[in-house]
């Protein structure tokens, strides 16, 4: 499928008779190659100031290769990252029904910004990307919808877990406390894995994460076995 719109505005509308030779016209200039960017909404003004343009059909920012600026490097697309999704089962505070809540993901330790031996990244750090798991995926795994909700406790809206039965907001502080309690009891993070998905590279924090569990390093080969057990599926936001 072509990435560019074609316009009829430049076509000649004058009729050409069979007896007259076709008029000479200049060949159209080649469309410049586009470099596509991954830009969070809050950075729109920055990339626009650097010369990037918005494509309404693809809903993405781009810049012609001959106008490239090194200042746009932070918004270049990154390779997708395989991630094991971790979840725990809790009782909903509102309806009392058991529901699963995502507590975080495991990525390759060498990709972790803090070089965590487990590669653990908390739910809060990757929540926006996990909204792509909604629908059939959530139903299959007993997870509530991942979406933005208003928290009266925090007096703000943020992407959160929800109860699979009544959609009540499951607060991130409560979820983190549940995870820490499991780790203290000696539960291995591998026991919390419910699936393995492919997340956009930009979903992973660059320099730090909001939560560190301080777990003992995984046993030799433990993460490799986990990878073989769960085939990876692509998830696109």
List the helices and strands and how they pair.
Blueprint: E1 34-37, H1 44-49, E2 53-55, E3 60-64, E4 81-91, E5 98-106, E6 120-122, H2 123-130, H3 136-141, E7 147-151, E8 156-162, E9 169-170, H4 172-184, E10 193-199, H5 222-229, E11 233-234
Parallel strand pairs: 10-11
Antiparallel strand pairs: 1-3, 2-3, 4-5, 4-10, 5-6, 7-8, 8-9
Notes on the protein architecture:
The protein is of the alpha+beta class. It contains five helices and eleven strands; from the N terminus they run βαβββββααβββαβαβ. It has helices at 44-49, 123-130, 136-141, 172-184, 222-229, and strands at 34-37, 53-55, 60-64, 81-91, 98-106, 120-122, 147-151, 156-162, 169-170, 193-199, 233-234. A hairpin with a 6-residue loop joins β4 and β5. The radius of gyration is 24 Å and the shape is globular. The model is unreliable at 1-31 (pLDDT under 50).
Rg over CA atoms, rounded to whole Å, is 24 Å
Strand content: 15-25%
Overall, the morphology is: globular
Number of domains as seen in the coordinates: 2
Structural class per helix/strand content? alpha+beta
| Strands in their spatial order, largest beta sheet | 6-5-4-10-11
Q: What's the mean pLDDT score?
A: 85
Helix content: 10-25%
- In N-to-C order, the SSE pattern is EHEEEEEHHEEEHEHE
Distance between the termini: 20 Å
Which parts are unreliable, with pLDDT below 50 for 5 consecutive residues or more?
1-31
Q: Let me know the number of strands.
A: 11
Largest sheet: 5 strands, mixed
Number of helices: 5
